[in-house]
Amino acid sequence: MSVAEAIVRAHRDEWARIVAGLTRRFGDLDVAEEAAAEAFAVAVERWPGDGVPPNPAAWLTMTANRRAIDRLRRENKRDDKQREAQMVYDDSPPEPPGPIDDERLRLIFTCCHPALAMEARIALTLRMIGGLTVPEIARAFLVQETAMGQRITRAKAKIKAARIPYRVPGATDLPARVSGVLAVLFLVFNEGYLASGPDSDPVRAHLTAEAIRLARLIRVLLPEDGEVAGLLALMLLTEARRTARVSAGGELVTLDEQDRGAWDAALIAEGHRLMRERLASGVPPGRYQILAAINAVHTSARDVRDTDWSQIVALYDLLVGLDPSPVVALNRAVAVAELDGPEVALAAVDRLEAGLSGYHAFHATRADLLRRLGRGAESRAAYDRAIGLAGNSAEVAYLSRRRDSPPA
Amino acid sequence: MQYLLSVLHDTFELAPAEEMAAIDVFNDRLRAEGHWVFAGGLNWPSTATVIDNRGDGEPLVTDGPYAETKEYLAGFWVIEAPDLDVALKLGAEGSRACNRRIEVRPFFGE
After folding, report:
1. Domains of chain B, with CATH numbers?
2. pLDDT tens column, B39-79
3. Which of A57, A67, A206, A300 gets the highest tally of CB atoms within 10 A of its CB?
């Protein structure tokens, strides 16, 4: 392994642990982040000449600790007592059968605290846990670097000033707080999977990869949580289809037209394994597990014609019970079209207009159903509305081709 | 650590008796659990007077609240809490008791 590879690996494996450990010791996210970044900068400078230390993690931790102490001495504003008072640290171990006691888990719950705006949670999580740099995060979300830097600085300042604690929530609050963490990861994944900007790459692989990496970490830390497993499985089964999802010409390829041989078999096997584990647990599934199960049915079919649509509709029925939102009902209608025909599905879709008239997928779904029913003029009008509302370039290309192709 | 729980209000109606009773229960709890610092209900914004004595001459006195807004401060609690999670829990209970939205805001740390 080259020195460069050793640094990349250490960064991937140790960043969050180092930041979390420093946060615990110094009670200050800002100090922790800066010292961790400096330690890696020192490694980049010294390792090529001195060689990779025998224990890179210990070397980085020690270097980061020294840097943090140097900074605090330099500032010399706070005595030790005040420094301890910076963050509220709860030393009691999580209650059994609670989560594993790992500093990184405290850091995750702090970064994803519900008192922070969602965009701040996403940015903080990617910076403090994921180790992405501010310019990387800014680029991923098409935000100016200075604006992204301010967003992170503000969030850190609020954590400190309002005393957002550095703690794993207690048993009663844990499910809600875990689902808040999963929401952050799902948004990161989705932003990577179907970028919303008009000129952005259709798929930003580093964001989907980062979301999966963080989901794997949380799965290690919360192995008993079914929704954590469900979200990881959902991401894996979605990511498995990534390369088949956009054509060489930059156009979105829908599930029924994808080359299933191009799907990533290893990711699919891992996703299916997770879902089998969840089924064996006998615990009723939550939203992410149901979504993952739907994806498991799709990825089990070698050919689109082998898809078990009745099972997919049954899973959507389960999901509607948990989440009666019109978007879920829209996706259910797509499956109903395969089971009961486009006419039944169109009736179901039309009932959703009030809630979804500003959503491009609503019009795209209607357009497709109208096309299948031979109602060409209405279908084209619906495609036009969908194109007007869609933000993703690959999606616009796909919708334009469908609009201009003859009815099936 | 102290937090200000501001009670946000948007209609010109007095709290009914059952709300007052619920607020009393909440206040007793704050006292019993050591969170209580201070609390108060404020009279209508129309009873406010703004005073500005930053200039050289006489203080400038203006009738009415400092800002004409749809929402105004109807009352507040100052509470003692170890961290924001506890303050938010108390804020949620206060919001339920007084049937209003509540802003939870930290004082500058000691």
Report:
1. 2-43+70-106 (3.30.70.1060)
2. 999 998 889 999 999 988 999 999 988 887 888 899 999 99
3. A67
Interfacial residues of A (vs B; Cβ cutoff 8 Å): 85, 88, 113, 115, 161-165, 167, 169, 173
End position of a domain, from candidates A68, A84, A100: A84
Domain extent, residue A25, equals 3-84
Cβ <8 Å between A162 and B106 = yes
Question: Which of A81, A88, A116, A158 to mutate against chain B (most B CBs within 10 Å)?
Answer: A88
Q: Does the beta-carbon distance from A88 to B82 stay under 8 Å?
A: yes
Cα–Cα distance between A377 and A354 in angstroms, integer? 22
pLDDT greater than 60 at residue A94: no
Per-residue model confidence (pLDDT) at position A54: 94
**Does the predicted interface ipTM exceed a cut of 0.90?**
no
A299 assigned to some structural domain: no
CA distances from residue A26 to A21, A67, A75, A163 in whole angstroms, order as listed: 9, 12, 13, 14
- Return mean pLDDT, chain A: 89
Would residue A205 count as lying in a domain?
Answer: no
Residue A394 domain flag: yes
For residues A230 and A289, the answer to whether their CB atoms sit within 8 Å is yes
Calculate ∠ Cα A207-A209-A210, nearest 5°: 65
Q: How confident is the model at residue A248 (pLDDT cuts 50, 70, 90)?
A: confident
Residue that is last in its domain, among A26, A51, A84: A84
Q: What is the 3-state secondary structure (H, E, C) of A165-185?
A: CECCCCCCCHHHHHHHHHHHH
